[in-house]
Automatic annotation (TrEMBL):
This is YafY family transcriptional regulator. Keywords: Transcription, Transcription regulation. GO terms for molecular function: DNA-binding transcription factor activity. The keyword Transcription applies. Residues 4-59 form the HTH deoR-type domain. It comes from the Bacteria. The lineage of its organism: Bacteria, Bacillati, Actinomycetota, Actinomycetes, Propionibacteriales. InterPro entries: CBASS_pafABC_assoc_protein, DeoR_HTH, HTH_11, WCX_dom, WH-like_DNA-bd_sf, WH_DNA-bd_sf, WYL_dom. The keyword Glycoprotein does not apply. It comes from Kribbella albertanoniae. It holds the Pfam family HTH_11.
Length: 309
């Protein structure tokens, strides 16, 4: 009986992977014959698991049921889900914090001690910024579906100055900066790529018509989730700068053996100024103009703050 139960759990785990399984492949994975596989599949169905037959290949897949069946996660998947729930509990999606905490509590009750230690370790070194602008779940889902289905999307958008305007876009990708959600989209009225904060966006339903996705310029993807995108010329070798910044923080491009172009994004001009200034290398700001003006004013204030000798 114990061997049969263990085999059923393994069969359920295999069927939860995103693929169709032939009876022969399942038999090989389980170390049994095709007839035993058919009996085990029928047992899962009797237990309420919606195992669908796949026509043409004499195979099986786990279908969608009326209720969510237990999920069998490996160690890495369990840690990933726990960390994701902790991040969701931080509140970047409105109303989801309590649900995330409840789900996390249930998961941590059944996590082996070795995995609980890994989750707590990741929690200790990860910082979730506070003061996030929360997005309504229905807005997030509507935009995600439009991106997935390649359907044009109209929405009312509140600008930085509080004014509102109707925008018509081809939605491309969602970006989460841990503090805000952004949409990268082709603005049909302006014939250019734009980024929109989801907490300022009210979708107009229904969406459509469908469109053929454009190729988004990669530099825009790297920093599109931010209000400001800056370009710096840093007087240091590219490998040195890349090692200081890390691969996911900025786009680092060598100009020559001693000079590097750095592209970075932020919602704060002060953050951008400190970002490169603290690297310890001479640099020039190439764009945007408002950052150049801001740093010039900041330099004057800092100079006045230092007492004369």
């Amino acid at each position: 009986m114990l061997e049969t139960s263990a085999r059923l759990l393994k069969l359920l785990s295999l069927l939860q992977s995103p693929r169709d399984w032939s009876g022969t492949a399942l038999a090989a994975e389980l170390g049994v014959g095709p007839r035993t596989v058919r009996r085990d599949v029928e047992k899962l169905r009797n237990l309420g698991y919606p195992v669908d037959a796949v026509p043409g290949v004499a195979g099986y897949r786990l279908g969608a049921g009326a209720s969510l069946p237990p999920l069998l996660l490996d160690d890495e998947e369990a840690v990933a889900v726990a960390v994701g729930l902790r991040q969701a509990a931080g509140g970047t999606v409105a109303g989801i914090e309590e649900s995330s905490v409840r789900a996390l509590t249930k998961l941590e009750q059944v996590l082996p001690s070795r995995l609980r230690h890994r989750v707590k370790l990741l929690q200790g070194v990860a910082v979730t910024p506070s003061g996030a602008a929360a997005v309504q779940p229905d807005v997030l889902l509507a935009v995600a579906e439009a991106c997935r289905d390649h359907q044009r999307m109209r929405f009312d958008y509140r600008n930085h100055d509080g004014t509102e305007a109707r925008r018509t876009t081809e939605p491309h990708r969602l970006v989460n900066t841990s503090r805000r959600w952004y949409l990268i989209a082709w603005d049909l009225d302006r014939a250019d790529w734009r980024t929109f904060r989801l907490d300022r966006l009210a979708p107009v339903i229904p969406t459509g018509p469908r469109f053929t996705p454009r190729e988004v310029p990669e530099p825009k993807t790297a920093s599109a989730g931010y209000r400001y995108q800056a370009v710096f010329r840093v007087h240091a070798p590219a490998e040195v700068v890349a090692d200081q910044l890390g691969p996911n923080v900025a786009i680092v491009t060598p100009i020559d053996s001693t000079t590097t172009a750095v592209e970075a994004g932020s919602n704060s001009l002060d953050e951008l100024a400190l970002y490169v200034g603290l690297l310890g290398h001479p640099f020039e700001i190439q764009s945007p103009p408002e950052l150049i003006t801001h740093v010039r004013d900041l330099a004057q204030r800092l100079t006045l703050a230092v007492p004369s000798s």
